[in-house]
Description:
The complex is a heterodimer of chains A (157) and B (197).
Chain A: H1 5-24, H2 29-43, H3 53-74, H4 91-101, H5 105-116, H6 121-128, H7 132-154
Helix pairs in contact in A: 1-2, 1-3, 1-5, 2-3, 4-7, 5-6, 5-7, 6-7
Chain B: H1 10-26, E1 32-39, E2 42-49, E3 52-57, H2 63-73, E4 78-80, H3 86-96, H4 114-122, E5 132-133, H5 134-140, H6 147-155, E6 168-169, H7 182-194
Parallel strand pairs in B: 1-4, 5-6
Antiparallel strand pairs in B: 1-2, 2-3
Amino acid sequence: MDGPFEQVVQQHxxxxxxxxxxxxxxxxxxxxxxxxxxxxxxxxxELDQGANVQAWLVTIAHRKAIDIVxxxxxxxVPMAELPDRPSAPDGRDLDxxxxxxxxxxxxxxxxALHHVGGLPYEDVAAVVGxxxxxxxxxxxxxIARLRQTYVTEGGDR
Amino acid sequence: MSDLIPEVSAVExxxxxxxxxxxxxxxxxxxxxxxxxxxxxxxxLLAATPLGLVRVAFDVQDHDAVLVDLATRVSPxxxxxxxxxxxxxxxxxxxxxGTRRVxxxxxxxxxxxxxxxxxxQHLADIGYGRTASYAEMATAAGSPRAVRAVGTxxxxxxxxxxxxxxxxxxxxxxxxxxxxxAAAKLALLDLEAHAGx
Lengths: 157, 197
């Protein structure tokens, strides 16, 4: 690509942050966002003209988010007690992150990639494995479950 | 479903953007940094490479188009990043206030080559408050007959104001053309004629 990278950040920054939050929750998402855009900035000149920039970024963001999860698991220290949950500015938002975090693994990732990131199911399947049809099923199951738990907890949404 | 995911606030994105700029600079990936500066001639676009100031552009030149041109001719790794341009912005503010006569920020002239580059390099020889004719500049650049080419070189000066192509005027004393418009050229000449400093 030969366009100014700043436009990419302006156009897709919010979506990428939402994808990172859906995979990681609100606290670690910032790190994943920065690593995503730094990697994208590095690779930008070599990206094919006409590539789907949002799909490219969402795929990178998902990979960076998983890297962070793996790093945390490697360095996890067993604790006698769970620490307090980090506070969010809006209590209702935190309930949503809890609801997403409570989804089965595959559903969570499909929701992050497709429903939040706008990645087509064919591309989602390439990332999470399995067929596009299976990804679609996991996605609708995840949404149904999310609407159930979150709408019940959050009230008016 | 995505309506369930909370929107991202502009402030959050600003913080993340600033962090990205820092990381990009640390990894030598900030090929072109830019910002705008408001002044008496409207909004100026300022852009720098790690080597120095590479572009100054007026409103009438269309900042978006200039950024696309920089992305094509220098590098698409372009980010809005005011830090590397703080010094030149300060010097321009002082210049417009009449308290600065000479710019001493590093300049990257990669966007001009050959005779045009020679002409642009000689612009700094015309002192504050003075003018030179296109013919005099042609002589100074070593090609007395290339008067027209000097006009082209001045029009394509990538860093106007900082390298003072506004000080090159017609032999009859009239101001002539300017990338920022004839009125901007007259305003700069007037500023330099009346600044007390």
